[in-house]
Amino acid sequence: MKNVTDSFVSLGHWPSAGSFGLNTDILATNPINLSVVIGVLIFFGKGVLSDLLDNRKQRILNTIRNSEELRGKAVEQLEKAQARLRKVEMEADQFRVNGYSEIEREKLNLINSTYKTLEQLENYKNETIQFEQQRAINQVRQRVFQEALQGALGTLNSCLNNELHLRTINANLGMFGTMKEITD
């Protein structure tokens, strides 16, 4: 590296003898050298730089165009998703309202059914009570009748003797005969 630097430094010490040479005075040669280098770069690099810039411009435009297409698709999908969301929300609200009304309807049906069942049970209870009362009354009547019948039979058996018994039978036969004559 030192050899390359030494060769440039040694070039700066050449005397200018009216021939072509390099001026190493930095202040005098810098604008000239820069303009020469820029001119050469512009002349030779203009096409290459223009092509590079055009390619870069096309890539940027394509990227922008693709981004716009993707953005448009995303906006479209977002609108579809929002529409589906609104539809689902409306259906959910409808289900919620229908569910509440269905719950209220079922509640009223259950209350009415319970009242009817209670009413039927009350009727069955009253019928059972009436039936049991009637049965108890019939049992008491039957018992009283049996007691009265046994008492009457006991009294008749103790009071009736053969003579009284024959007179009662004759009286009954006499009444029966009279009734038969009336009907003939």
Question: What would you say this structure looks like, in words?
Answer:
It is a single-pass membrane protein. With 184 residues, the protein is an all-alpha fold. The protein has one domain (33-175). The protein is built from 3 helices and no strands. The protein has helices at residues 2-11, 26-159, 162-183. The termini are far apart. The model is unreliable at 3-17 (pLDDT under 50).
Output the structural class: mainly alpha
* Span of the ends, CA to CA: 175 Å
Strand % is under 5%
Q: What's the mean pLDDT score?
A: 81
Number of helices: 3
Radius of gyration: 68 Å
Shape: rod-shaped
How would you characterize the largest beta sheet? none
How much helicity do the residues have?
Answer: over 70%
Order of helices and strands: HHH
Number of domains: 1
Number of strands: 0
Regions with little confidence, pLDDT below 50 for 5+ residues: 3-17
Tell me the layout of helices and strands:
Blueprint: H1 2-11, H2 26-159, H3 162-183
Descriptors for this entry?
184 residues, mainly alpha, 3 helices, 90% helix, rod-shaped, disordered N terminus
In short:
90% of the residues lie in helices and 0% in strands. The chain is mainly α.
